Amino acid sequence: MTKKVTVLGSTGSIGTQSLDVIRAQEYSVFGLAAHSNVELLLRQVQEFHPHCIAVVDDAAADRAARELHGMPGAPVLLRGKEGLEELAAMDGSDIVLNAVVGIAGLAATLSAIKSGRDVALANKESLVTGGSLVTDAVRENNVKLLPVDSEHSAIFQCLQDEYSAKSLQKILLTASGGPFFGRTRQELQNVTKDDALRHPNWSMGSKITIDSATLMNKGLELIEAVWLFGLPAEQVQVVVQRQSIIHSMVQFSDNSILAQLGVPDMRIPIQYALTWPERVPGPAPELDFTKLHELTFDTADEATFRCLAACKKAIGKGGLAPCAANGANEEAVRLFLEGRIPFLKIGELVEGVVDSEAFGGPYTLDDVYACDAAARAYVLAHVS
Ligand code: NAD
Ligand code: MG
């Protein structure tokens, strides 16, 4: 069946790989959204002929308007944050794939769900910052929230048998360990942005690549898993699997374990989210076991990689603590990429913000944004 898909964040790493899948499946594109890369967005418009596009950055939206002027069959142009939310909710798409980076994706996730649309979610920050808002909205609107993150797709794939799923006991969330696996704090003191941007197995956007180097990504994913699969954090165990071949595992009440394996290629989980519950041939290559010499397992070093410990503490505290951890991390990663703070400072700031308050209790969307702003302010106040 041909589907109509809206891709938010279409110019990014997940966005462009989503369009690879859409091209291969001959799905149609209803909407595309990006922050400011108008050049790539317009090339995507020429190929996929969406009904509507959204450009978040103001100056970029002006550029897009000029380029679209007089173009035959030009898409409707929406602008700003409101434009992104409006596109997510528009009638005409069957599913919204949210591949925006950061808390900037939250409002669009909620907007798509509240308009009754299924969501394929790459934007893990939606669940980390507004987990109860997102999962409540999914229940109230009776829509599907399909994971795109490879670990969560793996877990989801292992839980398709409803009889087994009922006896889920434990999630074994795999982690590559990132470029700095095995290093001591001493050895991490002077690592640079370029060192941190060199991921061994995956090619991704810069923010998530830094998150993989600090293990913040695994902390965010642990929180994401708690919201998606309803297990307490104590039943989610991080397992370092250096080759990124096992994408995660689940353990049932009889201690039987299922794993999902494949080459590290995001087009597999992206495609599964779009074709679920069916499986169809796709663009990702098969795993060649004649070239796979070993699968290794290690534990994560939380004493060195403080972001993971801080995220565990945050989900334990509940309420807006994960949102605060995320906000501090987004700000700290920005400062690290600008060369303004050293690598280890990211973990210190995330941990510091989680320790700074109680955070518990229910919250509204306004509370989420206020907490995010406060966490960013905390970071700015704690860097010289
Ligand atoms: P990226 O930086 O490559 O792309 C981000 C996209 O979001 C771009 O299209 C950009 O235009 C858009 N964007 C940025 N700021 C925005 C804003 N304020 N408003 C609207 N759009 C904005 O990032 P990515 O690596 O593709 O990651 C996207 C999301 O997917 C993240 O949440 C990440 O954690 C998650 N994810 C990525 C991977 C991966 O392999 N890259 C894997 C799993 C999960
Ligand atoms: Mg992942």
Automatic annotation (TrEMBL):
<feature type="binding site">
    <location>
        <position position="150"/>
    </location>
    <ligand>
        <name>1-deoxy-D-xylulose 5-phosphate</name>
    </ligand>
</feature>
<feature type="domain" description="DXP reductoisomerase C-terminal">
    <location>
        <begin position="261"/>
        <end position="377"/>
    </location>
</feature>
<keyword id="KW-0414">Isoprene biosynthesis</keyword>
<dbReference type="InterPro" id="IPR013512">
    <property type="entry name" value="DXP_reductoisomerase_N"/>
</dbReference>
<dbReference type="GO" id="GO:0051484">
    <property type="term" value="P:isopentenyl diphosphate biosynthetic process, methylerythritol 4-phosphate pathway involved in terpenoid biosynthetic process"/>
</dbReference>
<feature type="binding site">
    <location>
        <position position="151"/>
    </location>
    <ligand>
        <name>1-deoxy-D-xylulose 5-phosphate</name>
    </ligand>
</feature>
<feature type="binding site">
    <location>
        <position position="125"/>
    </location>
    <ligand>
        <name>NADPH</name>
    </ligand>
</feature>
<feature type="binding site">
    <location>
        <position position="199"/>
    </location>
    <ligand>
        <name>1-deoxy-D-xylulose 5-phosphate</name>
    </ligand>
</feature>
<dbReference type="InterPro" id="IPR036291">
    <property type="entry name" value="NAD(P)-bd_dom_sf"/>
</dbReference>
<keyword id="KW-0479">Metal-binding</keyword>
<dbReference type="Pfam" id="PF13288">
    <property type="entry name" value="DXPR_C"/>
</dbReference>
<feature type="binding site">
    <location>
        <position position="217"/>
    </location>
    <ligand>
        <name>1-deoxy-D-xylulose 5-phosphate</name>
    </ligand>
</feature>
<feature type="binding site">
    <location>
        <position position="176"/>
    </location>
    <ligand>
        <name>1-deoxy-D-xylulose 5-phosphate</name>
    </ligand>
</feature>
<feature type="domain" description="1-deoxy-D-xylulose 5-phosphate reductoisomerase C-terminal">
    <location>
        <begin position="145"/>
        <end position="229"/>
    </location>
</feature>
<feature type="binding site">
    <location>
        <position position="149"/>
    </location>
    <ligand>
        <name>Mn(2+)</name>
    </ligand>
</feature>
<feature type="binding site">
    <location>
        <position position="11"/>
    </location>
    <ligand>
        <name>NADPH</name>
    </ligand>
</feature>
<feature type="binding site">
    <location>
        <position position="151"/>
    </location>
    <ligand>
        <name>Mn(2+)</name>
    </ligand>
</feature>
<feature type="binding site">
    <location>
        <position position="37"/>
    </location>
    <ligand>
        <name>NADPH</name>
    </ligand>
</feature>
<dbReference type="InterPro" id="IPR036169">
    <property type="entry name" value="DXPR_C_sf"/>
</dbReference>
<protein>
    <recommendedName>
        <fullName>1-deoxy-D-xylulose 5-phosphate reductoisomerase</fullName>
        <ecNumber>1.1.1.267</ecNumber>
    </recommendedName>
</protein>
<feature type="binding site">
    <location>
        <position position="212"/>
    </location>
    <ligand>
        <name>1-deoxy-D-xylulose 5-phosphate</name>
    </ligand>
</feature>
<keyword id="KW-0464">Manganese</keyword>
<feature type="binding site">
    <location>
        <position position="123"/>
    </location>
    <ligand>
        <name>NADPH</name>
    </ligand>
</feature>
<feature type="binding site">
    <location>
        <position position="13"/>
    </location>
    <ligand>
        <name>NADPH</name>
    </ligand>
</feature>
<comment type="similarity">
    <text>Belongs to the DXR family.</text>
</comment>
<dbReference type="InterPro" id="IPR013644">
    <property type="entry name" value="DXP_reductoisomerase_C"/>
</dbReference>
<dbReference type="Pfam" id="PF08436">
    <property type="entry name" value="DXP_redisom_C"/>
</dbReference>
<feature type="binding site">
    <location>
        <position position="221"/>
    </location>
    <ligand>
        <name>Mn(2+)</name>
    </ligand>
</feature>
<keyword id="KW-0560">Oxidoreductase</keyword>
<feature type="binding site">
    <location>
        <position position="12"/>
    </location>
    <ligand>
        <name>NADPH</name>
    </ligand>
</feature>
<keyword id="KW-0521">NADP</keyword>
<dbReference type="GO" id="GO:0016853">
    <property type="term" value="F:isomerase activity"/>
</dbReference>
<dbReference type="GO" id="GO:0030145">
    <property type="term" value="F:manganese ion binding"/>
</dbReference>
<feature type="binding site">
    <location>
        <position position="205"/>
    </location>
    <ligand>
        <name>NADPH</name>
    </ligand>
</feature>
<comment type="pathway">
    <text>Isoprenoid biosynthesis; isopentenyl diphosphate biosynthesis via DXP pathway; isopentenyl diphosphate from 1-deoxy-D-xylulose 5-phosphate: step 1/6.</text>
</comment>
<dbReference type="GO" id="GO:0030604">
    <property type="term" value="F:1-deoxy-D-xylulose-5-phosphate reductoisomerase activity"/>
</dbReference>
<dbReference type="InterPro" id="IPR003821">
    <property type="entry name" value="DXP_reductoisomerase"/>
</dbReference>
<feature type="binding site">
    <location>
        <position position="14"/>
    </location>
    <ligand>
        <name>NADPH</name>
    </ligand>
</feature>
<keyword id="KW-0460">Magnesium</keyword>
<dbReference type="InterPro" id="IPR026877">
    <property type="entry name" value="DXPR_C"/>
</dbReference>
<feature type="binding site">
    <location>
        <position position="221"/>
    </location>
    <ligand>
        <name>1-deoxy-D-xylulose 5-phosphate</name>
    </ligand>
</feature>
<dbReference type="Pfam" id="PF02670">
    <property type="entry name" value="DXP_reductoisom"/>
</dbReference>
